[in-house]
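Why does residue order matter? Because the sequence determines the fold. Keep that principle in mind as you read this record.
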Amino acid sequence: MKEKNNTDNKVKAFLKKKNVEITWRRYLIDAMSAMASGLFASLLIGTIISTLGQQLGIQALIDMGTYAKGVAGPAMAVAIAYALKAPNLVLFSMLAVGAASNALGGAGGPLAVLIIAIVATECGKLISKETKIDILVTPLVTIMIGVLLAMGIAPAIGSAASAVGQLIMWATELHPFLMGILVSVIVGIALTLPISSAAICAALSLTGLAGGAAVAGCSAQMVGFAVMSYKENKVGGLISQGLGTSMLQMGNIIKNPKIWIAPILTSAITGPIATCIFKMQMNGEAIASGMGTCGLVGQIGVYTGWLNDIAAGTKTGITPMDWIGLVLVCIVLPAILTLIFGQIFRKLNWIKEDDLKLDM
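Structure:
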């Protein structure tokens, strides 16, 4: 028993020295949020630049966007390794791991990158600086473990993620009202929580009507909190939450969870309006489904989807109803509904003075 305790203590001490912290927070919050940033800085921004180039007829912008989209896998893997505090040789080795995982993961590439990059990074950290030829051993071990894992499990991860995403999208097509509520509420909640709704949508390749519901739910959270807290946070809060992230309210939600009810109720209303009335679909990049009004990325994604559909011949053109639906679902209704709910809850004393105040 004593020997076992000594061994356990040595293992714990070694893991601590290597900064390997096996916790849900590090892997599902820190790593996933970083992955979303990497995905945003490559695939998503590349899509926006390419779309701008197509609209303006500027080939240089189209090429820039193509290059940015081409490094999505490496960008995600490096971002994850950075969040896990990997030493330099491990960090740089993740370029190859990310490229392999994303390519072999297919439609579920981001999920494959998340899982494989975490394992490869932690293994690389364990071997880092343990030999006199660290410059050879650390990248060799990290890349071999990561790429072998990618070859072995990335296709299966991709197939599983794609199947789940397809199931959600199929269910939304079959039951647009119920699934419009569920997808909108769940993805909207994920947006405000310290996890990445964008990464979730990307990992599941969530597009179509389900993607439209996700955009609605995320927009309800962001625009809702921005408008509902205008009294406390003024223009700065309006912009930082409406175009930034509703995650800023997480500390206040922990103190008083009732402030979250209004945006959630709003998302439960705008989701089925998006799916049943306006048939709003996200046929751009799946990551945009989980971005809401952050930099208007969700709306740009819907617009990009319209262009994709027109190019594919499945849509004849962009109609006034398309624009009306997009503006109503993503901006007007979230602002009006959350403000009304917020006022009711203030009257009920569920929301007290400064409950929504941000430290800015």
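The CA atoms of residues 169 and 210 lie 5 Å apart.
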